């Protein structure tokens, strides 16, 4: 049974994780892309590096933290759906 307290705690954990994923997707991956282009890598390789940063720092870290931080799978699932849109 999901209690209101569990849902509220999960919601409070969801907010910073959601912001972290948006930060990685919007700023960190772009920074890595620009750095790779500046270092002389072709744009296709730089895009690959940026995508790998998203996979590691957004998806990987979040996927590792979810089983330890959340009591229910509802909010991580909804967050993933929102980010996929």
TrEMBL record:
Which keywords does UniProt give here? Kinase, Membrane, Transferase, Transmembrane, Transmembrane helix
Highest taxon in the source lineage: Bacteria
Which parts pass through the membrane?
Answer: 12-33, 53-70
What GO terms are given for molecular function? kinase activity
- Output this protein's name: Dolichol kinase
Organism, per UniProt? Candidatus Nealsonbacteria bacterium CG_4_10_14_0_8_um_filter_35_10
């Amino acid at each position: 049974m999901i209690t209101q307290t569990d849902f509220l705690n999960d919601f409070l954990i969801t907010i910073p994780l959601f912001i972290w994923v948006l930060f990685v997707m919007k700023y960190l991956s772009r920074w890595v892309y620009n750095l790779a282009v500046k270092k002389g890598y072709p744009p296709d390789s730089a895009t690959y590096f940026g995508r790998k940063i998203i996979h590691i720092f957004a998806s990987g870290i979040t996927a590792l933290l979810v089983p330890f931080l959340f009591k229910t799978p509802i909010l991580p699932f909804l967050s993933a759906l929102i980010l996929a849109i």
